[in-house]
Design a protein that fits this description.
Layout lengths: L3 E6 L4 H10 L5 E7 L23 E2 L11 E4 L5 H6 L7 E4 L9 H8 L6 H4 L2 E3 L2 H4 L8 E3 L3 H15 L8 E8 L7 H4 L10 E2 L7 H10 L8 E8 L5 E8 L6 H11 L6 E3 L17 E7 L5 E8 L3 H16 L9
Parallel strand pairs: 1-2, 1-4, 2-3, 4-5, 5-7, 6-7, 8-10, 12-13
Antiparallel strand pairs: 8-11, 9-10, 11-14, 13-14
Length: 340
């Protein structure tokens, strides 16, 4: 099979450079174009020194004429950017978006949470929100693929199987997530210049973080009960990684062993989701620089309450790695290719 010709739009952000680092090691990929606006004319190694030895094209401004020369477009652009590119797609193109443009099923929800009108409403119905371990089997039918956000990836992987089996109460789930500052993008140093970024822990988006929308949407699709949850994200003085701590109450007659078995059964064939023994403690260090999600269920002093720990690398499993995992499934490659 000939190599896929690929265009990467938004190649110089933290997610974009991580994506390029993974793609150059994928034997079925040829990077045809690297696109950016303010970075046009520069080399990718100006933003990621580890790519200095890779033979890659210089960064240029996107032009829709490029689409006739590529099979696959990755977009790691600010929200809204991939909508415009999606309107240019030709019949043979596949678009994989790492931002939020094709995560929500309703344009009205996008307007509510992202404060901008969706500019490609017609393509929402042509797209799929793809958390590969959950609905990757449907992926091949779609040419526009929306990758989940980093926080939702760490939250939905442990929760969806438990909600599907009606094992946990859905009226008061508490989610506390902590992320490395790379999750806020390269502008994080300006955005949080007064917050002593490297020595402090900051809560943000309290009660109304944008990722509430996709967590709600996806959980609601697996349960007839109303899902009530409180999600609070935090920015930590580390570069990468997410640790989500999820507090749930068990339904009557459900044991922690039942939760463990359900997760093990759900992910028995998964190459990337690791279910640890009950009461195992997790660290982001366990998953850094991998496409893995490690999950542990812990007892509490209350018989009917447990704490679920979930750890991922926000730039890989929560971003570039998951996008490549979706690509591998879409094109029939080994799911782990380029991700080992």
């Amino acid at each position: 099979m000939p190599k896929l010709n690929v265009l990467v739009a938004g190649s110089t952000g933290y997610i974009g450079t991580q994506l390029v680092r993974l793609l150059v090691k994928h034997s079925d990929i040829k990077i045809k174009y690297l696109c950016g606006n303010s970075s046009a004319g520069k080399t990718i190694s100006s933003y990621e020194k580890s790519l200095s030895s890779a033979r890659l094209p210089k960064i240029i401004k996107y032009n829709k004429s490029f689409l006739k020369n590529v099979d696959l477009i990755f977009t790691a652009l600010p929200n809204g950017g991939s909508q415009d590119i999606s309107n240019d797609l030709l019949d043979h193109n596949v678009l994989i978006d790492l931002a939020a443009d094709f995560r929500l099923n309703k344009a009205s929800d996008y307007l509510k949470w992202y404060k901008q009108k969706h500019r490609s409403v017609k393509n929402i119905k042509k797209s799929i929100y793809s958390l590969p371990e959950i609905n990757g089997d449907r992926l091949k039918k779609f040419n526009i693929i929306g990758c989940p956000g980093c926080y939702p990836t760490s939250i939905l992987l442990p929760l969806i199987p438990l909600v599907k089996k009606n094992l946990i109460k859905t009226d008061n789930v508490i989610i506390d997530s902590k992320s490395g500052y790379s999750g806020a993008g390269r502008g994080v140093h300006n955005k949080y210049k007064d917050k002593n970024l490297y020595e402090s822990l900051s809560a943000y988006g309290v009660g109304y973080h944008r990722h509430n929308s996709e967590i709600q949407q996806e959980i609601d699709s697996y349960t007839k009960k109303k899902f009530f949850f409180t999600f609070t994200p935090h920015l930590t003085p580390m570069f990468r990684g997410i640790l989500s701590t999820i507090y749930v109450d068990l339904n009557k007659g459900v044991t922690i062993k039942k939760l463990e078995k359900t997760l093990n059964d759900e992910y028995s064939k998964s190459r990337f989701v690791k279910i640890l023994k009950i009461n195992s403690l997790l660290s982001t260090n366990d998953v850094i620089n991998t496409n893995n999600c490690s999950i542990s269920i812990c007892k509490t002093k209350y018989k009917n309450r447990v704490i679920i720990l979930s750890a991922i690398d926000n730039l890989i499993k929560g971003g570039a790695g998951q996008a490549i995992q979706n690509m591998n499934i879409k094109y029939g490659f080994n799911e782990t290719k380029g991700l080992k």
